[in-house]
């Protein structure tokens, strides 16, 4: 198995200890995630950005909670913002 970082090791330990529970999504939630995945699936440009370690860790946690790679979450948020579907509360 590949080397795991501390967070990945904690997740694997929790899995083996039976401490994780399956997340059940509604059909509407699944449809939303599928739409987000389709919206960002055509990846023909590369962008490199610098963000704080804390922001990246927070994004990784949110992506893990949603069951998606953090890069996909970031791309989805950027797409929603660019499309005018994401605004401040």
Describe this structure in words.
- The protein has 89 residues and is mostly helical.
- The protein has one domain.
- Helix content is 57%, strand content 0%.
- The protein contains four helices and no strands.
- What distance separates the N and C termini? 43 Å
Number of domains: 1
Low-confidence stretches: none
Strand coverage percent: under 5%
Which percent bin holds the helix content? Answer: 55-70%
Give the helices and strands as they follow along the chain: HHHH
Work out the helix count.
Answer: 4
Query: Any idea what the shape is?
Result: globular
**Rg, please?**
15 Å
SS-based class: mainly alpha
Report the count of strand segments: 0
What's the average pLDDT? 88
Main sheet attributes: strand count, strand direction, barrel closure: none
Short description:
By secondary structure, the chain is mainly alpha-helical. Helix content is about 55%, strand content about 0%.
Key terms:
single chain, 89 residues, mainly alpha, 0% strand, globular
Write the layout of secondary structure elements.
Elements: H1 6-16, H2 27-39, H3 53-66, H4 70-82
Helix pairs in contact: 3-4
């Amino acid at each position: 198995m590949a080397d795991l970082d501390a967070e990945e090791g904690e997740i694997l330990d929790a899995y083996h200890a039976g401490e994780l529970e399956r997340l059940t999504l509604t059909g509407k939630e699944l449809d939303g995630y599928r739409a987000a995945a389709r919206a960002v699936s055509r990846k023909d440009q590369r962008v490199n950005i610098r963000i704080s370690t804390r922001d990246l860790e927070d994004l990784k946690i949110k992506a893990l909670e949603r069951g998606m790679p953090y890069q996909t979450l970031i791309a989805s948020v950027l797409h929603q913002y660019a499309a005018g579907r994401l605004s401040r509360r």
